[in-house]
Amino acid sequence: MGRRLGGLLLRWWRRLTAMRTAIVLLFLLALAAVPGSLLPQRSLSQNNVNQYFADHPELAPVLDRLYLFDVFSSPWFAAVYLLLFVSLIGCVVPRAAEHARALRTPPPAAPRNLLRLPDSGRLAAPSDPGAALDVVEEELRVRRFRVVRRDGARGPELSAEKGYLKETGNLVFHLSLLALLLGLAGGKLWGYEGSILVTEGQGFCNSFQQYDTYSAGPLVDSGDLNALCVDLDQFTAEYEDNLTAASFTADIRYGAPAGEERSRTIGVNDPLRLDGDRVYVTGHGFSPTFTVTVPDGTTFTDVTVPFLPTDQGTMASEGALKLPDLPGQEDQLALEGFLAPTGLVQGGVLTSIDPRPLAPQVALIAYSGYIGLDSGLPQSVYSIDQSQIERGRLTEVGSANLSVGESFDLPDGTRITFSGVKEFAALQYSHDPGQLWVLGASIVLLGGLLGMLLLRRERVFARAEAAGDGGGTVLTLAALTRGGGEGGSRFEALSDDLRDALAAAPPARTAPEPEVPPRD
Questions:
Q1: What are the start-end ranges of the H helices in 434-486?
Q2: 199 near 232, Cβ under 8 Å?
Q3: Cα–Cα distance between 143 and 297 in angstroms, integer?
Q4: What pLDDT is attached to residue 53?
Q5: Could you say which residues of the chain have pLDDT below 50?
Q6: Number of C-beta neighbours around residue 104 at 10 A
Q7: Which pLDDT score is estimated for 392?
Q8: Residue 449 domain flag
Q9: Alpha-carbon distance 161 to 184, whole Å?
Q10: Which long-range contacts (CB under 8 A, 24 or more apart) does 65-69 make?
């Protein structure tokens, strides 16, 4: 039983470590990465994922159960990744050991019948067999062949070989692919990234507690994060004539918490790079600003909250402002709003007709009661917990459509004023310690691929036999070429060069005839 199980495991191991299996797994890995480029990923933009759920309410949950919004952290992607990793190790390491032995092994002996090889022929040489092989050896060494001469059963013969770098390039390609996978795995184990919405005039420091969403490798500790703070001074979005976004740029200041600050402008394809850390701009939106005045005269100015875009074409956005601790108020206050950067009211309904903030308007619904922030249950900072409304803990106390500078009053005397809008930038902080390793492995991989495709593995055999009564030598040549389709033409070129070189060689010396003594 144990022998049968061992044989079964050995067969499966050989199948897994076969080059054909590695190629199939590499294809599956590339195929598995396709959804990650076609569908929004949570690790890059939670807003885009939310937008996809809003646009496809029936399809999105099915895709989510298949991890298609978290492709690169999904179990099935990790399974293909690990199988490819094991397959490459089991395939490349034995081949590398075999190639190392081949480098120390001389070219094989010439086959018995050279004329059966695909490229073969005979040449006549006026010199003796040894001198003819000297000419062949010199010509092959000029062409960088490694040459070995032997005394065969049919006469002196020669074996030559070159093109070991083709197999070296093949091994370098696969070893660098293995290093590339190691670099990617290291980046996942020791890397982290976090996303946050930062409104103009605000900032954040590199801490998991400050990010809206973050992901970290299993070997990352919160104390390992680099000390860096980023402040957003201004965000600029430029649009084409058809109102499509042309460019996004963010003017930021960055530096250590107690260090000197520096200024920099970053864009979508121009991140801030600092010692392996990168700060990307992944999106933008608007943050309406409110002024809240409670009945006792206390005024809160510049109360700003990001509203998430629900329509990328017009940048119509939705959000919520939660005020749980207003002085002199027993009930908590929450505002649910719809922001139109360029608003138009039709039939009492506010819509947005332009993504630029040309005429900002906001539609607000005010609720009073218990928001539920201290209930212990998680809730989004960008929306109101609807269960509190359904249970009657939050009741609607007013609504209005406001332009910049307009206000509306609640029944208890609280006044809400729409002060204006600021832009926010969706920033992503990424730390990937394996990126230089991946870059180096990619460069080496390209070099190995070029060597594998452009170089040829060639073997040339020659055997010299005496021509018989006429003197001279009959030289039998043959060649084997792997890689490229020019074996025949290369053999013809070699034969032509050898024919010319043999013709110029000195003829073989014939033994002088013995003198016959004169008869008496």
A1: 435-454
A2: yes
A3: 95
A4: 87
A5: 511
A6: 6
A7: 87
A8: no
A9: 38
A10: 68/35, 68/39, 69/39, 69/40, 69/41, 69/42
pLDDT of residue 329: 78
> Measuring CA to CA, which residue among 156, 65, 59, 161 is closest to residue 107?
161
Bridge partners of 343, per DSSP, are: 352
Token representation of residue 37: 């480029």
How many C-beta neighbours within 10 Å does residue 177 have? Answer: 22
Q: Are residues 117 and 223 located together in one domain of the fold?
A: no
Question: Whole-angstrom Cα distance, residue 121 to residue 476?
Answer: 6
Burial class (CB in 10 A: 0-12, 13-18, 19+), 26: middle
- At residue 487, the pLDDT reads 61
pLDDT of residue 362: 95
pLDDT score at 519: 58
The pLDDT assigned to 485 comes to 55
Exposed/middle/buried for 363, CB within 10 Å: 0-12, 13-18, 19+?
A: buried
Q: How many CB atoms lie within 10 A of CB 255?
A: 16
362 part of a folded domain: yes
Placement of tokens 């999904």 in the chain: 74
Residue 124 lies in a domain: yes
- Tokens representing 167 are 């197999």
The tokens of 405 are what?
Answer: 């500078």
467 and 387 inside one domain:
no
Long-range contacts of 383-386 (CB under 8 A, 24+ apart): 383/318, 383/319, 383/320, 383/336, 384/320, 384/322, 384/334, 384/336
One domain, residues 118 and 95: no
> Please, are residues 271 and 279 in contact by the beta-carbon 8 Å criterion?
yes
The C-alpha angle 403, 409, 412, rounded to 5 degrees, equals 160
| Contact indicator for 45, 69 with CB cutoff of 8 Å | no
> Which residue, of 71, 100, 129, is where some domain finishes?
100
Indicate the DSSP class of residue 209. Answer: G
pLDDT in tens, 281-291: 988 999 999 99
Q: 151 is in which domain, residue-wise?
A: 106-163+456-504
